[in-house]
Fold:
Amino acid sequence: MGILPIILSGGAGTRLWPVSRETSPKPFMHLPDGQSLLAKTLLRANALPQVTNILTVTNRDYFFRTRDEYTTVQPDLANHRYLLEPFGRNTAPAVALAALWAAREHPPETVLAVLPADHLIQDLAAFARAMNHAASLASQGRLVTFGIRPTHPETGFGYIECGEPLDDAGDCAVRRFVEKPSLEKAREYLASGRFLWNSGMFCCTVGDLLAAFAAHAPEVLGPARQALEASTMGPQGMVELEAKAFAALPDISIDYAIMERAANVAVVPGEFDWSDIGSWEAVAEFVAADAAGNRASGEAVHIESRNTYTQSDGRVVATVGVDDLVIVDTADAVLVAHRSQLQRVKEVVGELKARAHEAYREHRTVSRPWGSYTVLQEGPQFKIKRIEVRPGHALSLQMHHHRSEHWIVVSGTAEVLNDERRILVRVNESTFIPAGHKHRLANPGIVPLIMIEVQSGEYLGEDDIVRFDDQYGRDCRAVS
Structure:
């Protein structure tokens, strides 16, 4: 029985700020073992039986970074396809679009495995067994979800109440879905033995899923069909959804749209480890504790401290005489929170957004299809960046109205187009790009190009770009 994995990759993961941000959301977050949640989801998809294609639904802006993460665990991506959303919606539109795409390419009895990219499951063999079992139920006409046996009264998860048993394996019809409960209710659910945590994963055939959308959420299915029909095929397996048609889709989850309304929903208890990595508490669990319960990712010194987690990008973090704290240090932001208050980290993001502070949106180092840049320092009418361009890649052909740029190469070789003049700039050499000059930077070599850019001008925003040509298919409204 073949299975088509559908990877849903999006969501800001605001409770994991300052590592997870709007332009670098939770699926791209690397765990202490060095792998991202997205890469681990791909490994999970590849562990399923008879996988021939994998479809990822994600934002257009995340496409190149998604491929980069995938290639860390699967260099050949020829069997991958991508539905690229112009902006965020919710899981019901994403799943409806995936089902419609699958119906074009596969027969209606094809089994879909819908996998959020921000979860962690480490026992891939147990997961594959559970999905294979769910696929058998799906082939019998069931919409199958996966429940996780609760180990404590958790208020951060939704719950599934089990109904009548379907077999001797513990599978049940779903009686109802329950939103995140109060602590008192969560204790009741745990004591009853009838409730499972809602994992957000499910399994069904293409035909049954589309029939469920037609019966219970036609307001999703109709616009999804129009958005897919208006889409354009791009290179590397890209299907770009047209923005105007996509905007007609409602913002609704798959649980609300389908799973809570359909009568043929079954739940399979997941006999595998599972975490939604929903807070820094969950991240800390993947780091070994010392005798006092302290955990550290990166360099740390704990003096007379207990049950404290520290994470840093390079600096030493020292704690003295503190208990039950989480400290996360990044290049441009530090989080200090009591372990009992970690669910409120999202309030920090809300406050930063209200202040229009860039720290809610992006890191000091920003990924681009061609490489990355890091803002080293900025002030009135100047900004200094470290730019890294991958071998064989190039920035867009562009022009700035309000700033000039001085480029100094520190490693590799730069090929620079400055109006009509094309030159090579080598280590310890520099060049100057006046405002108003059409220009392009490329790396023609086989090693990374690293350079320092000094910008000067009356306005230095990333939106001061007129783009004329771009090998990555970006338009002139996007940044470089």
Remarks:
- The chain has three domains: 3-269, 280-347, 365-469.
